[in-house]
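Quick start: what a row looks like.
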Amino acid sequence: MNFDFPDEVRAMQQQASDYLTKTGSRALARKVLDGDGSVARRDWAEMADMGWTGLTISEEFGGNEIGYIALCGLSYELGRHLTPAPFASSVYLVAEALTLYGSDRQKSEWLPGIAAGTSVGCFAQSEGLSDGSGYMQKAKVANGKLSGSKKPVADGMCADFAIVRAQGDNGEGLYIVDLAAAGVGRTSVKTVEGLREHATITFENAPADLLVEGTEAIEKLFERAAVMFAFEQVGGAQACLDMSVAYAQERYAFGRAIGSFQAIKHKLADMFVATELARSNAYFAAWALSTDAAELPVAAATARLSAGKAFWLAAKENIQTHGGIGFTWDVDAQLYYRRHKALKLNIGAERFWEDRLIDGLSAGLVEL
């Protein structure tokens, strides 16, 4: 039995790795951190030219419909190379929400732009300090008009439209809002990550088009997006491990490579074990997502939790392995720690996913 990606996905991963290495994705992320958000939009357009943005979008709406396994493989490379492009917001969340719940009119209006790389979507749910799960929404929609504020919104400054989580007449729902419409304002906001532009977006009676109602529908979207985010986190963890191993081999202290010291060996071994465990869980989740299996809720929660823990461990131990220079501006270790912090809360904190995992196991979705 083969637990790895098929050959065609491996080939696409190699293409992605070559492209991201050639373009210097980490260097682009640093440019965004320095205030040049335009590079993210250019990177997004080039990804579209290679067909990456339409992997799960129907051919009817401009995509190539290659599938979720390919998207998971690509997500791994995007995480490993620390891309600043608005890929996760537009593809994992916005395109997926439109594919799941959009009417033909809504799909025709918004999906072709994502597939072609001519438009960017963002997902707006956070309203300040929270656990990232999006509960207790204050933004409200009445008579098709949205009022409220969302912050921070990842990729909110470069986005053309947003899918906004808000309270409607029948409870929580997702609404499509054109960010160029009247009643919409946005300002840049600094975050710990800084590798993607974040925004505070305010709505004052802005036109809002209902996409779907109900928290169950929103949580289903999160389950599916969690699989791709898990692959990004595993990719980030692998990059941190690779950086640590390389530095441990070239850095000498007391006449020996520091990788020969037991304390460093233990760090690298712990990073390796956590990353491989997360990789295995992510593969299972990819299978569940691609087949729409009943195990998906448990598989997604498991992948999300293990990948998050692996990235956290790898990011912090990468800094420790580098010693005194590990947290300095000149070393990329701090960039991965920043990205870990952002991914940790984007669609719910650990507590949210632990509750979902317990609920799924209690419901017997996976045999123990």
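That is the whole record. The chain has three domains: 7-119, 122-213, 216-362. DSSP finds eleven helices and ten strands in the chain.
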